[in-house]
Amino acid sequence: MKNIKVPALARVEGEGGLYIGLKNGKAVEIRLDIYEPPRFFEGFLRDRYLQEVPDITARICGICPVAYQMSAVYALENALGVKISPQVRALRRLMYCGEYIESHALHIYMLQAPDLLGKESVLEVAAEAPDVVKTALRLKKIGNELLKAIGGRSVHPVNVCVGGFYSWPDAKAIKALLPDMEWGLNAAIDTVKLALTLPYPDLEIDYEFVALHHTEEYGVIEGDVLSSNGRKLSISEYENSYIEEHVRHSNALHSRTVDNNTYLVGPLARLNLNHEQLMPRAKNSLQEFGIRLPVKNPYKSLIARSIELVHFYEEAIQLIKEYKPSGPAHLELKLKAGEGSGATEAPRGLLYHRYKIDARGMVQFAKITPPTAQNLPRIEADLFKLTPKIVSLPEAEATLIAEHLVRSYDPCISCATHFLKLKIAEK
Amino acid sequence: MKKVAVIGIGQSLRGDDAAGLEAVRRWQEKFPETANRLEVRVEACELPGLALIDLLNDFDAAILVDAVQSAGNPGTIHRLDESDLASFASGSRSAHGWGVAETLHMRNQLTDVEVNIRIIGVEAEQMELGAELSRVVESAIPDLCRVIEEEIHALVQEK
Q1: Helices and strands, counts by H and E, chain A
Q2: Alpha-carbon gap: B70 to the closest alpha carbon of chain A (Å)
Q3: Are residues B13 and A56, on separate chains, in Cβ contact within 8 Å?
């Protein structure tokens, strides 16, 4: 059994291909070819009972299952006219803190920092600096522990339902996480310091930033869809201004605004639009470490993620201290035919869902617009900007810088973009 | 008491990728006496990624059951130990692609705590989204259950 050849373990499927076509040294065609599973999920959800939806959509992704659950429950609650209790809302936010913590720790330390440092992978970092990786794993683990305490397991939580939670998590188990959370908050502030020392390629882009905005808290659930060009919509109006369309080279849809602009969702958009609502220590970190906003360098989304890591540790501590389950954990649903939309901020950006249900609560139509679909045209546009800077470099080096740009977005295609093969062709 | 985990790994909505989860579930049904022993714990992990490192730290030994794609015939059962896994690395540089091989490699770099790990893989035929287990993998499940039972007895005797 020692010599099994060219194998791969399960779930390492799918490839994203990157093609840059050049003419006289200038980029004339850029394509990010991608396979996007969430499209199939929409068909898969039809004729399912609405309470199955959060459990199914969670499986779109192993890293941001909570985001898929939360956008789904809000959309379905809107379809039924259900208003959840403040306690349920607070617990949803706490659960979301767990997801941001584990996802951002993973992205910062395991994905993007090794890229910026020119390492083949985090395994190389682990060999050279095991303590840094141990810190990263502990930061991530605390997020997973929080998800487990609320959702019953650390990946693909099973406690979320339309109307609330199947049961209140044990208050003792939740409070027991506080010492780890305090450690995590300090480690997150150290992460910001570390993030500021990394070497970022020079690239500034004038983005249209789009994120949920809430006047009283850092936008994650509910609020308005805000754009840096001044457009403000309710979530139910999202599809009036943001359009998805097919492009020939991608199985993923591409999003644009009605006035035909590409736009950016994700950590940079959130930080630039919503920094006023950050928790105190996260806000202080911006000042203390001299971070000037708006940040317009896509590679520096790592810095935005590190600030958010501080924010979500801080918010988790506050919500854990305030956690007092009372009243029913979930509302009894009164079924009726209806249609509703919902959006939340997944770690990678705005995630929009819309469902139509019949009088029995069976899904008749589902639409899911993941952050990656919204960012894909933006990634291609960024690559146009980047190409002149890299075109004279050796091919291997140019490939790496382009790959790193794509990976700085952390396109979440259900674990599908593993190898990005760059092909530069002179036409 | 030493603790042993039987861990099914896979994605339940992706065809044969669910084979590990399904095999562990059916082994539990078929061999309840073993599955209910005090030192044995059964876990279902969909896309555990790096969380597998933390999970393993709780046990002295573990049996991981997962779908595998290699050059073999679909339905073939592979019995591996950790040293065999090098040939299964995906070579992935994406943090989304943490497979079992990479995760165990990383674990070895970061900790000296030894866990006796046995891996049972079943060769997948298709991993289409939403599809059920393929017929050939489905028919391998009873053999997989027997292999899980054999492995766990071997582990318990070793201790």
Answers
A1: 15, 14
A2: 4
A3: yes
